[in-house]
Protein backbone atom coordinates (compact mmCIF):
# COMPACT_ATOMS: atom_id res chain seq x y z
CA UNK A 1 0.00 0.00 0.00
CA UNK A 2 1.24 3.51 -0.83
CA UNK A 3 2.38 5.39 2.34
CA UNK A 4 0.04 8.31 1.71
CA UNK A 5 -2.95 5.99 1.25
CA UNK A 6 -1.97 4.14 4.38
CA UNK A 7 -1.89 7.34 6.39
CA UNK A 8 -5.32 8.35 5.09
CA UNK A 9 -6.59 5.04 6.33
CA UNK A 10 -5.13 5.63 9.76
CA UNK A 11 -7.29 8.74 10.38
CA UNK A 12 -5.40 11.62 8.84
CA UNK A 13 -8.60 13.67 9.22
CA UNK A 14 -8.23 13.63 12.98
CA UNK A 15 -6.99 17.24 12.69
CA UNK A 16 -10.64 18.26 12.19
CA UNK A 17 -11.05 17.86 15.95
CA UNK A 18 -8.37 20.47 16.63
CA UNK A 19 -9.44 23.79 18.17
CA UNK A 20 -8.64 25.72 15.01
CA UNK A 21 -10.73 23.47 12.78
CA UNK A 22 -13.62 23.23 15.22
CA UNK A 23 -13.82 27.05 15.25
CA UNK A 24 -13.55 27.18 11.45
CA UNK A 25 -16.31 24.59 11.09
CA UNK A 26 -18.61 26.43 13.49
CA UNK A 27 -18.08 29.68 11.59
CA UNK A 28 -18.94 27.90 8.33
CA UNK A 29 -22.08 26.40 9.87
CA UNK A 30 -23.16 29.87 11.03
CA UNK A 31 -22.39 31.55 7.71
CA UNK A 32 -24.49 29.19 5.60
CA UNK A 33 -27.94 29.92 7.15
CA UNK A 34 -27.04 33.60 7.62
CA UNK A 35 -26.27 33.99 3.92
CA UNK A 36 -29.40 32.07 2.97
CA UNK A 37 -31.52 34.41 5.12
CA UNK A 38 -29.80 37.46 3.60
CA UNK A 39 -30.63 36.13 0.14
CA UNK A 40 -34.27 35.62 1.14
CA UNK A 41 -34.40 39.17 2.55
CA UNK A 42 -32.98 40.58 -0.68
CA UNK A 43 -35.54 38.59 -2.68
CA UNK A 44 -38.33 40.06 -0.55
CA UNK A 45 -36.91 43.53 -1.24
CA UNK A 46 -36.88 42.68 -4.96
CA UNK A 47 -40.54 41.65 -4.86
CA UNK A 48 -41.52 44.77 -2.89
CA UNK A 49 -39.69 47.11 -5.24
CA UNK A 50 -41.07 45.33 -8.30
CA UNK A 51 -44.59 45.74 -6.92
CA UNK A 52 -44.00 49.45 -6.20
CA UNK A 53 -42.56 49.99 -9.68
CA UNK A 54 -45.64 48.35 -11.16
CA UNK A 55 -47.88 50.66 -9.13
CA UNK A 56 -46.00 53.67 -10.49
CA UNK A 57 -46.25 52.35 -14.05
CA UNK A 58 -49.98 51.69 -13.72
CA UNK A 59 -50.62 55.09 -12.10
CA UNK A 60 -48.76 57.04 -14.77
CA UNK A 61 -50.50 55.09 -17.55
CA UNK A 62 -53.99 55.68 -16.14
CA UNK A 63 -56.25 58.27 -17.73
CA UNK A 64 -56.49 61.64 -15.88
CA UNK A 65 -59.51 62.02 -13.63
CA UNK A 66 -60.93 64.98 -11.68
CA UNK A 67 -59.07 65.27 -8.40
CA UNK A 68 -62.20 64.96 -6.26
CA UNK A 69 -62.78 61.45 -7.62
CA UNK A 70 -59.70 60.28 -5.71
CA UNK A 71 -59.39 62.52 -2.67
CA UNK A 72 -61.42 64.63 -0.28
CA UNK A 73 -60.82 66.64 2.91
CA UNK A 74 -59.31 64.32 5.51
CA UNK A 75 -58.59 61.58 2.95
CA UNK A 76 -55.28 59.71 3.11
CA UNK A 77 -53.88 59.08 -0.36
CA UNK A 78 -53.23 55.36 -0.80
CA UNK A 79 -50.34 53.68 -2.59
CA UNK A 80 -52.70 52.78 -5.45
CA UNK A 81 -53.74 56.45 -5.80
CA UNK A 82 -50.22 57.83 -5.57
CA UNK A 83 -48.90 59.26 -8.88
CA UNK A 84 -52.34 59.13 -10.49
CA UNK A 85 -52.79 62.04 -12.87
CA UNK A 86 -55.63 64.31 -11.80
CA UNK A 87 -57.13 67.54 -13.05
CA UNK A 88 -58.70 70.46 -11.21
CA UNK A 89 -60.42 73.68 -12.24
CA UNK A 90 -60.15 76.82 -10.12
CA UNK A 91 -57.76 79.65 -9.30
CA UNK A 92 -54.42 79.99 -7.54
CA UNK A 93 -54.35 81.77 -4.17
CA UNK A 94 -50.91 83.39 -4.13
CA UNK A 95 -51.58 85.35 -0.94
CA UNK A 96 -51.42 82.12 1.08
CA UNK A 97 -48.56 80.64 -0.92
CA UNK A 98 -45.66 79.09 1.02
CA UNK A 99 -42.30 77.57 0.13
CA UNK A 100 -40.93 74.22 1.28
CA UNK A 101 -37.34 74.44 2.50
CA UNK A 102 -34.34 72.27 1.64
CA UNK A 103 -35.63 70.75 -1.57
CA UNK A 104 -33.37 69.80 -4.47
CA UNK A 105 -33.81 69.78 -8.23
CA UNK A 106 -32.56 67.19 -10.74
CA UNK A 107 -29.03 68.63 -10.43
CA UNK A 108 -29.07 68.29 -6.61
CA UNK A 109 -29.12 72.07 -6.16
CA UNK A 110 -30.79 73.10 -2.90
CA UNK A 111 -33.71 75.48 -3.07
CA UNK A 112 -37.45 75.52 -2.41
CA UNK A 113 -40.62 73.89 -3.62
CA UNK A 114 -43.46 76.34 -4.21
CA UNK A 115 -46.72 75.24 -2.58
CA UNK A 116 -49.71 77.27 -3.72
CA UNK A 117 -53.32 76.73 -2.57
CA UNK A 118 -55.63 76.16 -5.51
CA UNK A 119 -59.24 77.09 -4.78
CA UNK A 120 -61.69 74.84 -6.61
CA UNK A 121 -65.03 75.96 -7.97
CA UNK A 122 -66.81 74.39 -5.00
CA UNK A 123 -64.63 76.26 -2.48
CA UNK A 124 -62.42 73.37 -1.45
CA UNK A 125 -58.67 73.84 -1.59
CA UNK A 126 -56.14 71.67 -3.42
CA UNK A 127 -52.48 72.03 -2.53
CA UNK A 128 -50.37 72.38 -5.67
CA UNK A 129 -46.62 71.91 -5.66
CA UNK A 130 -45.76 74.18 -8.59
CA UNK A 131 -42.12 73.04 -8.71
CA UNK A 132 -38.62 74.00 -7.65
CA UNK A 133 -37.02 77.44 -7.39
CA UNK A 134 -33.43 78.28 -6.42
CA UNK A 135 -32.49 80.04 -3.20
CA UNK A 136 -31.98 83.80 -3.50
CA UNK A 137 -28.69 83.59 -1.62
CA UNK A 138 -27.16 82.45 1.64
CA UNK A 139 -29.98 83.98 3.67
CA UNK A 140 -33.06 81.81 4.09
CA UNK A 141 -34.91 84.11 6.44
CA UNK A 142 -36.79 86.10 3.82
CA UNK A 143 -39.45 84.88 1.45
CA UNK A 144 -37.85 84.16 -1.93
CA UNK A 145 -38.95 85.64 -5.23
CA UNK A 146 -41.57 83.30 -6.63
CA UNK A 147 -42.80 83.49 -10.23
CA UNK A 148 -46.52 84.12 -10.35
CA UNK A 149 -48.88 81.39 -11.55
CA UNK A 150 -51.53 82.00 -14.23
CA UNK A 151 -54.22 84.38 -13.02
CA UNK A 152 -57.93 83.84 -13.20
CA UNK A 153 -59.65 80.50 -13.65
CA UNK A 154 -57.39 77.78 -15.00
CA UNK A 155 -57.27 74.00 -15.23
CA UNK A 156 -54.26 72.32 -13.67
CA UNK A 157 -53.00 68.80 -14.06
CA UNK A 158 -50.64 66.95 -11.77
CA UNK A 159 -49.66 63.72 -10.03
CA UNK A 160 -51.52 63.02 -6.81
CA UNK A 161 -49.20 62.58 -3.81
CA UNK A 162 -49.80 61.65 -0.17
CA UNK A 163 -49.17 64.16 2.59
CA UNK A 164 -45.58 64.18 3.82
CA UNK A 165 -44.82 63.12 7.36
CA UNK A 166 -41.59 62.95 9.34
CA UNK A 167 -42.01 59.19 9.77
CA UNK A 168 -42.32 58.57 6.04
CA UNK A 169 -39.83 61.14 4.74
CA UNK A 170 -37.31 61.48 7.55
CA UNK A 171 -37.65 65.28 7.33
CA UNK A 172 -37.95 66.99 10.69
CA UNK A 173 -40.85 69.39 11.00
CA UNK A 174 -38.84 72.27 12.46
CA UNK A 175 -40.55 74.98 14.47
CA UNK A 176 -39.85 78.72 14.45
CA UNK A 177 -39.29 78.96 10.69
CA UNK A 178 -39.44 82.29 8.85
CA UNK A 179 -42.88 83.44 7.77
CA UNK A 180 -44.45 81.43 4.92
CA UNK A 181 -41.79 78.71 5.02
CA UNK A 182 -42.51 75.07 5.87
CA UNK A 183 -40.61 71.78 6.00
CA UNK A 184 -43.34 69.27 5.06
CA UNK A 185 -46.24 69.32 2.63
CA UNK A 186 -49.04 68.12 4.85
CA UNK A 187 -52.68 68.75 3.99
CA UNK A 188 -53.91 68.56 7.60
CA UNK A 189 -51.40 71.16 8.75
CA UNK A 190 -52.26 73.41 5.82
CA UNK A 191 -55.98 72.99 6.50
CA UNK A 192 -55.43 74.39 10.00
CA UNK A 193 -53.27 77.23 8.67
CA UNK A 194 -55.74 78.19 5.95
CA UNK A 195 -58.85 77.40 8.01
CA UNK A 196 -60.28 75.76 4.91
CA UNK A 197 -61.46 72.41 3.57
CA UNK A 198 -58.23 71.08 2.07
CA UNK A 199 -58.22 67.93 -0.02
CA UNK A 200 -56.05 65.14 1.36
CA UNK A 201 -52.55 65.00 -0.09
CA UNK A 202 -51.35 67.37 -2.80
CA UNK A 203 -50.46 67.33 -6.48
CA UNK A 204 -47.11 67.79 -8.20
CA UNK A 205 -48.07 70.06 -11.07
CA UNK A 206 -47.34 68.89 -14.62
CA UNK A 207 -49.50 71.38 -16.57
CA UNK A 208 -49.77 74.17 -17.46
CA UNK A 209 -46.02 74.62 -17.83
CA UNK A 210 -44.54 77.85 -16.40
CA UNK A 211 -43.91 80.74 -18.75
CA UNK A 212 -40.28 81.15 -17.65
CA UNK A 213 -37.61 78.80 -16.41
CA UNK A 214 -39.05 78.59 -12.92
CA UNK A 215 -40.70 77.10 -11.06
CA UNK A 216 -38.98 74.05 -12.49
CA UNK A 217 -41.60 71.32 -12.76
CA UNK A 218 -40.81 68.14 -10.88
CA UNK A 219 -39.68 65.24 -13.04
CA UNK A 220 -41.37 61.88 -13.36
CA UNK A 221 -40.99 59.68 -10.30
CA UNK A 222 -37.97 57.47 -10.65
CA UNK A 223 -38.33 53.72 -10.38
CA UNK A 224 -36.44 51.72 -7.80
CA UNK A 225 -33.65 49.42 -8.97
CA UNK A 226 -35.31 46.10 -8.17
CA UNK A 227 -32.89 44.12 -10.36
CA UNK A 228 -30.06 45.03 -8.00
CA UNK A 229 -31.83 43.29 -5.11
CA UNK A 230 -32.35 40.21 -7.27
CA UNK A 231 -28.64 40.14 -8.08
CA UNK A 232 -27.77 40.50 -4.39
CA UNK A 233 -30.08 37.59 -3.51
CA UNK A 234 -28.41 35.31 -6.05
CA UNK A 235 -25.00 36.49 -4.85
CA UNK A 236 -25.76 35.62 -1.21
CA UNK A 237 -27.02 32.17 -2.18
CA UNK A 238 -23.91 31.52 -4.26
CA UNK A 239 -21.81 32.55 -1.26
CA UNK A 240 -23.76 30.14 0.96
CA UNK A 241 -23.10 27.32 -1.53
CA UNK A 242 -19.42 28.24 -1.74
CA UNK A 243 -18.87 27.93 2.02
CA UNK A 244 -19.19 24.11 2.27
CA UNK A 245 -17.32 23.68 -1.01
CA UNK A 246 -14.50 25.86 0.31
CA UNK A 247 -14.51 23.96 3.63
CA UNK A 248 -14.12 20.62 1.83
CA UNK A 249 -11.32 21.96 -0.37
CA UNK A 250 -9.44 23.32 2.64
CA UNK A 251 -9.90 20.11 4.61
CA UNK A 252 -8.69 17.91 1.75
CA UNK A 253 -5.71 20.17 1.16
CA UNK A 254 -4.83 20.09 4.86
CA UNK A 255 -5.17 16.28 4.91
CA UNK A 256 -3.01 15.91 1.81
CA UNK A 257 -0.32 18.21 3.18
CA UNK A 258 -0.29 16.36 6.51
CA UNK A 259 -0.15 12.96 4.79
CA UNK A 260 2.71 14.03 2.57
CA UNK A 261 4.59 15.46 5.54
CA UNK A 262 4.06 12.25 7.53
CA UNK A 263 5.16 10.11 4.58
CA UNK A 264 8.29 12.21 4.15
CA UNK A 265 9.07 11.90 7.86
CA UNK A 266 8.62 8.11 7.72
CA UNK A 267 10.90 7.83 4.72
CA UNK A 268 13.54 9.95 6.44
CA UNK A 269 13.35 7.77 9.55
CA UNK A 270 13.89 4.66 7.46
CA UNK A 271 16.88 6.18 5.70
CA UNK A 272 18.44 7.19 9.01
CA UNK A 273 18.20 3.68 10.48
CA UNK A 274 21.54 1.73 10.29
CA UNK A 275 21.62 -1.12 7.85
CA UNK A 276 21.65 -4.62 9.39
CA UNK A 277 24.00 -7.32 8.20
UniProtKB/TrEMBL annotation:
UniProt keyword annotations, A-Z: Cell membrane, Membrane, Transmembrane, Transmembrane helix
Topology versus the membrane: Multi-pass membrane protein
Transmembrane feature ranges: 20-40
InterPro entries found in the cross-reference section: Surf1/Shy1 (IPR002994), Surf1/Surf4 (IPR045214)
Residues forming coiled coils: none
Localization per record: Cell membrane; Membrane
Signal peptide: none
CC terms in the record's Gene Ontology section: plasma membrane
Protein family: Belongs to the SURF1 family.
Protein name per UniProt: SURF1-like protein
